[in-house]
C-alpha cells in the first residue's frame, strides 16, 4: 500500500446500502475510465462503516454489478468495517493536537441553533459545545454519549480556505467556517464519520485521484483539511453529475426499476447501460452500445465539463429510444 510517486491510483468506494443504481454506475465508470485512460490503478473499498450496511451479501452484489459492467480493480476489496484501528489512531492524533471536542447536541438542537443552512441543506455548526469545561462535559456525559467534532480554523485564517480545481466542476473556493463549521469525525453511537474514514483510507491506500458524484463536491475541502492535519497529501478531485429521477429527486431505492439488479433481470446488457451513460455526455449516439473498454477510448474530462447539470433518467434512458 505504498504511495507511488506518479502513477494515478483511483478507487471505487461504494456504500453497500442496496443495489447499485445508474448514478452509482456512472460515477464508477468515470472513476475507472479516468484512471485507466492515464495508465492508472484502481483500488476497491467497500464503505460499510455504518453497521446497517455491514451485510456481506449486499457487498457481493455491488462487486458483482461492477464486474458485470466490465469494470475491474487491482487491489482490494478492503472493508471499512475491518479498519477501525486506523481511524481510531487518526482520531487520537487529532485529539493530541487539541483540535477535537465532544459534542452533546441532539439533532433537534442542531437544527434549532444552526441557521443559516448551507446551500446543500446541511447545517453550519455554530460551535455550541466548543467551549464546555471539564465539569460540564462530565455532567453531560451522564445524560448521553457525545459525538466528536473537529475544530475548523476561524473565517479569517487562511488555513481554513480551500482553492482547488476540480476535474469536472472547475475552480472551487471553500471556507470551512462558512460552509460547515466544526464537523463530526465520530458519531454519538461511536460510528466513525465518513469524512474521517475516507481520508485515512485514501491516504493509506495511496489514492491520488478521487472521482465521485457531485453531491460530495462540498466534502472535498473538509477532506483536504483532515488530510493536511494528518500530514497526508490531498488527492485531486473529479466530480461527476448526478443521475436523477424525472422530477429532479436523487435516484434512490424508490427507483428500484432503474437499479442494476432490475436492469439485469430484464435482460439488459452492460453495453446498453454503458452506451446510454455515454450518450448522456455526448460520447455515443442514441442507442449505441459500448463496452467499458470502448468507453475509455472516448473518455476525457472535457466530456464531463461540458455536461455538469444533473441528468434526468427514466425507463426510456436505457430502453425507449
Ligand atoms: N461511499 C460513498 C458513496 O457510495 C462514496 C464516498 C466517496 O467517494 O468519497 O456515496
From TrEMBL:
A motif ('HIGH' region) lies at residues 14-24. Transmembrane segments: none annotated. Keywords: Aminoacyl-tRNA synthetase, ATP-binding, Ligase, Metal-binding, Nucleotide-binding, Protein biosynthesis, Zinc. Binds 1 zinc ion per subunit. Catalyzes the tRNA-independent activation of glutamate in presence of ATP and the subsequent transfer of glutamate onto a tRNA(Asp). Glutamate is transferred on the 2-amino-5-(4,5-dihydroxy-2-cyclopenten-1-yl) moiety of the queuosine in the wobble position of the QUC anticodon. ATP binds at residue 253. Coiled coil: none annotated. A motif ('KMSKS' region) lies at residues 250-254. Signal peptide: none annotated. This is Glutamyl-Q tRNA(Asp) synthetase. Belongs to the class-I aminoacyl-tRNA synthetase family. GluQ subfamily. Gene3D superfamilies: HUPs. The keyword Iron does not apply. L-glutamate binds at residues 11-15, 47, 194, 212. Its EC number is 6.1.1.-. Residues 9-294 form the Glutamyl/glutaminyl-tRNA synthetase class Ib catalytic domain. Zn(2+) binds at residues 103, 105, 125, 129. Its cofactor is Zn(2+).
Amino acid at each position: 500500500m505504498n504511495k507511488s510517486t506518479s502513477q494515478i491510483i483511483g478507487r471505487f468506494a461504494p456504500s453497500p446500502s442496496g443495489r447499485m443504481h445508474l448514478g452509482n454506475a456512472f460515477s464508477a465508470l468515470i472513476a475507472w475510465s479516468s484512471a485507466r485512460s492515464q495508465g492508472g490503478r484502481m483500488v476497491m473499498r467497500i464503505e460499510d462503516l455504518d453497521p446497517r450496511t455491514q451485510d456481506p451479501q449486499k457487498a457481493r452484489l455491488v462487486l458483482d454489478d461492477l464486474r458485470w459492467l466490465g469494470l475491474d480493480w487491482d487491489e482490494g476489496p478492503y472493508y471499512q468495517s475491518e479498519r477501525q484501528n486506523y481511524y481510531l489512531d487518526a482520531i487520537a492524533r487529532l485529539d493530541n493536537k487539541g483540535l477535537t471536542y465532544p459534542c452533546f447536541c441532539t439533532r433537534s438542537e442542531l437544527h434549532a441553533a444552526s441557521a443559516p443552512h448551507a446551500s446543500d441543506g446541511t447545517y453550519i455548526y455554530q460551535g455550541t459545545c466548543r467551549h464546555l469545561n471539564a465539569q460540564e462535559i462530565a455532567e453531560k456525559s451522564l445524560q448521553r454519549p457525545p459525538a466528536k467534532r473537529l475544530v475548523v480554523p476561524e473565517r479569517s485564517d487562511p488555513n481554513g480556505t480551500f482553492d482547488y480545481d476540480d476535474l469536472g466542476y472547475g475552480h472551487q473556493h471553500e471556507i470551512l467556517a462558512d460552509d460547515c463549521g466544526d464537523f463530526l469525525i465520530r458519531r454519538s453511537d461511536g460510528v466513525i464519520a465518513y469524512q474521517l474514514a475516507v481520508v485515512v483510507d485514501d491516504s493509506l491506500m495511496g489514492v491520488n485521484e478521487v472521482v465521485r458524484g457531485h453531491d460530495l463536491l462540498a466534502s472535498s475541502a473538509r477532506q483536504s483539511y483532515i488530510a493536511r492535519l494528518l500530514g497526508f497529501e490531498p488527492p485531486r478531485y473529479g466530480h461527476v453529475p448526478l443521475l436523477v429521477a424525472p422530477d429532479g429527486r436523487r435516484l434512490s431505492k424508490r427507483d428500484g426499476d432503474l437499479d442494476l439488479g432490475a436492469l439485469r433481470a430484464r435482460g439488459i446488457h452492460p453495453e446498453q447501460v454503458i452506451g446510454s451513460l455515454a450518450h448522456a455526455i455526448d460520447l455515443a449516439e442514441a442507442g449505441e452500445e459500448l463496452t467499458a473498454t470502448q468507453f475509455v477510448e472516448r473518455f476525457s474530462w472535457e466530456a464531463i465539463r461540458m455536461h455538469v447539470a444533473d441528468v434526468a433518467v427514466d425507463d426510456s434512458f436505457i430502453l425507449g429510444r
